[in-house]
Structure formats: C-alpha cells, structure tokens
Design a protein that fits this description.
Blueprint: E1 4-5, E2 13-19, E3 25-29, E4 35-39, H1 42-49, E5 58-59, H2 60-64, H3 71-80, E6 85-87, H4 99-105, E7 109-113, H5 116-126, E8 130-132, H6 143-156, H7 159-180, E9 190-194, E10 206-208, H8 212-216, E11 220-221, E12 231-233, H9 236-242, E13 246-249, H10 254-263, H11 265-269, H12 272-275, E14 279-281, H13 292-306, H14 316-328, H15 333-338
Parallel strand pairs: 4-7, 5-6, 7-8, 9-11, 9-13, 13-14
Antiparallel strand pairs: 1-2, 2-3, 10-12
Length: 350
C-alpha cells in the first residue's frame, strides 16, 4: 500500500505499510536507506542480515567496546564505534532511545526490540516510524525470531539474505534432531544446566526447564519436571534428588559457583556428575536477546557430550567456525573462547 508521507523535511514521499512483531501497522518509506537499531535483538538482526552499513547511530554499549557476549559486536564494533550514540542499549524492552539524538541523525526507520508501549512512546517523541522486531529468548530459536527476521528484512529489502540465514538455522535444527531422535530414553544420560545467565547472573541453582540446546538434541533435562516455566531458581536439595548424569555450567558464572563450592564442598562432591568428572561448560547465549550463533553452538556441544557416538564426526571448532562464518561473515571462534565462552570440562573450586 503506497500513500503520501509527511515525515519532516520530506513531502510526497512514497510510503508503504509493514506489520511489526506486535501486530502494529507502521507507515514507512517505500525505500529505506538509513536505520537506527535499538534494544533487544535489533542490532544483532542488522548484523545477521548484513545491513549494518545503513545504521546512522548505535547504542552506547556497542560504541564503547567490543564484547564477546554479543556475537555481532566482535565483527562490527569497528564499524559502529564512530557512529553517534542514539540509545543506551539493553534487553528490557523499555524505551531507552535518545530521542533528540535520533531526530538529529534522521533515520528513515527505527527498528527496535521494544515493548509495544515503548515503541509508541519513541515514535511519538521523534516523529519517526518505529518498527518492533522483538523476539523471545526461550526454547530453541523459536518462531518469534523467524518473524522478527522477516519483519526486519521486509523493512530494509533483505529478504533473500534473510531466507538464507533461516534456512541455515533450519538445516542445523534438522541435523541436531536427526542425530538424536531415534535414541531411546533408556540409552540417554540425564542432564542439568546451572549457573545460567537470564536477567542477570546466577549460581548453581539457576537453571532452565525447556532449555533450547537440550531440546534441540532431545536430551533428558531433569528440570523439565517443573512445568509451565523456563528459567527458575531450583532448590539445591532438588538437584541432589535429580542427581543428573551430566552437569553443564555457564563458565561466565563460575566465580559464583566456586564461591558456593568453597562454602559447602561436601554438597557438590556428593553429586555423581562431580564425582565422575562429568561437569562441562555451557556458555551463555543470552545478552540483549539471543545470540543465535551461540545457541546453535551450545546445542552441538550438548550433543557431543551427551551422545558421543552420534556426534563423533563433529568438532566444536569446525562447527563453530561454520556457524559464525555463515551468520556473521567472520570466524572468531578462538576469540570467543579466549573471551570466556569456551567449551570443555570444568573442575569445581578451580
């Protein structure tokens, strides 16, 4: 649908209507040449789609320094660091854009991982269309991410690249499932993931039900007995009751776990997985939305550890390099591991 646009400084500009991830109908220019990306997931999608060169502003945390916690930052920091600051950055969904600075750089469209209310607020503050591309960080790269990618791609005209990325994700999902779907539960090890990062850092009892990397390889997650939830704090004695065969922990939170270990080593040493040396890393994939690259890598690592025969041909450095190269155009697997997001065994207390 093409109609007249009344954006300040432009008259009689052709426009079109797009529907964002909240179902809002937003009028945008027919051709979008400049963008601002704010909030949970939006800058990351710009990187996956290869359109960061259209960004005329960046968030403070992407300007300040490169961070391995946000996958796209490792590749695009040099491109973003000299752009004007147009927002604080973060994943809460609130409006943390800098309205005056955004008005100064005059993007054609603002793409935001905001709540519906926050998007409306920023649009009213700036007079610039705000298209929401917020996606969820639950389960395993669910449909909300696919929708956000396609909405973003429609805005910037990157549909072909979008479908290439989504097909690659689908191919990974199929590969992970095909390797494990026929393994009977009786032959599977039980697993627990702890010290997770979700809305902040957590110690040993912070865990997930419906944990995406486990779901992708049909793993037996002991926490799945807790229904109708995703992240939660479990009781330490519940983990003893579950006594999982394998434990995965976020290496970025091992300082918290090791402090807990020093306080109560007998508790941890009583766990069978600790006794048998079956404690492994599971790097966090959440930072201002889901790092889909890291989520895919975590899924393959879960498969390697839990089903060594089914994943005998998979090496983490090889699959990690492929995922990063295809989705972000650059392999920084070594830098990722050097930055603390590494794959391997853990010894509690060290």
């Amino acid at each position: 649908l093409f109609v007249g646009c009344s954006k300040p400084g432009n008259t009689d500009v052709e426009t079109r209507i797009v529907t964002d991830t909240w179902g809002r109908e937003v009028e945008i220019p027919a051709k979008v040449e400049t963008i601002v990306c704010l909030g949970s997931g939006a800058p990351r999608i710009a990187a996956y789609l290869g359109v960061t060169d259209r960004m005329v502003g960046a968030e403070d945390h992407d300007i300040k320094s490169a961070s391995v916690l946000r996958d796209y930052s490792m590749v695009y920091h040099d491109e973003l660091k000299d752009l004007p600051a147009v927002g604080a950055g973060g994943g809460s969904g609130a409006n943390n854009g800098y309205a005056e600075q955004i008005i100064e750089v005059q993007p054609d469209v603002i793409l935001a991982g905001f709540s519906q209310e926050a998007a409306e607020e920023l649009q009213n503050q700036t007079g610039i269309p705000v298209v929401c591309v917020r996606y969820l960080s639950i389960n395993f790269v669910d449909e909300s991410f696919y929708t956000a990618m396609r909405v973003f791609a429609e805005v910037v005209g990157a549909q072909e690249r979008c479908e290439t990325v989504l097909k690659f994700i689908d191919d990974c999902k199929k590969d992970l499932n095909d390797r494990t779907k026929d393994i009977p539960n009786s032959d599977k090890k039980t697993a627990y993931t702890g010290a997770v990062t979700f809305s902040g850092r957590h110690g040993f009892a912070g865990t997930y039900a419906n944990f995406g990397p486990f779901m992708s390889v049909n793993a037996l997650n002991v926490a799945d007995e807790v229904k109708d939830t995703n992240y939660f704090e479990t009781d330490l004695e519940k983990i003893v009751e579950w006594d999982p065969d394998v434990i995965f922990l976020d290496p970025g939170n091992m300082d918290l776990v090791n402090d807990e270990y020093k306080t109560n080593p007998d508790y941890f040493d009583a766990l069978r997985a600790v006794q048998e040396g079956n404690v492994y890393t599971m790097p966090s994939f959440n930072n201002c939305g889901t790092n889909v690259t890291y989520a895919l890598m975590d899924a393959y690592y879960a498969g390697i550890v839990l089903y060594p025969d089914a994943f005998a041909d998979v090496k983490m450095e090889t699959i990690g390099a492929e995922i990063l190269q295809i989705m972000l155009g650059e392999n920084f697997f070594e830098e990722m591991e050097q930055g603390g997001l590494y794959y391997g065994k853990l010894t509690l207390g060290k």
